[in-house]
Amino acid sequence: MRQVKLAAASTALVRRGAVLLEDALRTASLPDAPGGRLLVIRQLSLGTIHADRSPAALSLVVEQRVREVARLAVHARSQSAATAQAVYFRDELEPFVLLATRLAQGLPLDDWFWRPAVPGRHPGMSRDDALRLTLASALRTELGHAAAVTLVSELHALGALAPLLGALRWQDGPALARAWWGHLPSRPAPRLPLDDVGPLEQVSEPLQRTLARWARTWGADDARALWLAAVALCTHMPSRVAAPNLPARAWRVLGALQASPTAHLPTPRESLEQAPPKPDTPTATAETAMVPGIAASSHPSVRALSGAPTSDNVTKPLEATPASPAGVTAVPQTRVRPAPADTDEAPGDTGTTPQDARQRDVTEEALPTVAGGLLFLVPMLNALGLGEFLAGHPALSDLGIPERFLCHVAERLGVPPTDPLFRVLQEATAGPLPEPSPFVLPVRFQTGVGARAPFRLVREPTGRCVAFDARTRVPLASTSHGEALPPPFDRCLTTPLAHRLPWDDANLMLRAGLLAVGRVTRRLARMGLRALVLRPGCLVATRTHLDIVFAASQADIRIRRVGLDINPGWVPWLARVIQYHYQYDETGA
Q: I need a surface site. Which of 7, 203, 359, 437 has the fewest CB within 10 A?
């Protein structure tokens, strides 16, 4: 809220009204609809505030007025948005995509909703400053650096990426890298060998050309080139944003571009005369040239990063959240799902979908699913150490193991293949897993599944060894060619087999996960896996969110007691924000 206007017969009544409104805004349940849509209200009139009423009564008025305004909201690209009482964006990232696109195209940004939608921007800000603020604001959303990946990929598809990259100064590269990884990854010497699968095959050809062009301009060892290479890798698979080996992969991509005969990138060993010109090469030391600038976040915390002078030689800082000037109309912001409105787009805007990134299935509306409880397994998998497992097995993290497991559970429970959850989850499950795929499940998994020593090691004639729990039911590790397993599996009771087990490594992992979530569900929630997963709901899938909407009658005290329906929020290994909603239908059920 930018500004509140209160009028009364006395100063005491104004103060009383301010206290009542402050308490009412704290207790009001503003609508939070699936998909994370952002609503910006131009002005919200609350009528007469009676001094003798409670804040709870006033909060109901606030809720009612917000719902009324939300029903009349139009999309920000609508031609009527400039005069509308409220506008909405499809998600919290869309304001920054639209703003950067309009800045790149030189379109006007005089409409009232841009200022509250992108805090910190003001009419006198230069284009470079505004573009850097756009990137900083995107990084401060719930998606963190995954938001930057989406922003870059969409701007690249719209042909509006060059102005954003041109606005980045040399100080922004180390700042972006530190915000992502906590440090500035140094380039190994000698240069890393190329991946067996080819690092450039993991980046689409249009992005390869863009990366090569800007790395040639900045220099192959510039931190901005490293950051852009990491972003390019994540556009193919967004879940890579949390991969611990992402900097090494980014260096390999830059190394492959440098070795390519069509892309010559300068190195520190080359003279400045041989290197391509760098328009933003610093002319002073870092200590004297650094000024406060672009703000980004190492999700979920927010950090202030270094900045540099803009292209128009203006050295004013870009603050993350500057104070709002006085005299601005009250503009409360909340995420709601507005009623359908006119979606005609203003001239010059485009809704092109990125073609160089992996397409994410978007439902556009709530679609019914019979397996709404499948996403209740997300917090359970977090507790079992799935993130730790993927970090320790980088070769498996790119193969969509989490999505494969969720699809496996749904198939075992008889969910029809036409269910919208299948369509969303099968984005990352194309093709079979390679064999062999050795793995070791983390200690948290062993504890959660109740695996106890003595562990049993089954040795096959092929040399593969599989470690099981004491009852030889839950597979805990697998290795090929007789390689040694880490403790505590190195002290297992060994049983040689004359034939192979009926499961390959992929099926062993899926079997272990299925047994684990079944045991945890029975032990904690006192219910079967089928009862947990097979509950009707509606799925809303956007490029950033997966939301499941249940009828209020579906609320289950057994699920609530163990916290399985607490919103997980940003889930790195799914690269989406997961949320659960309970809503009353028209019958009140």
A: 7
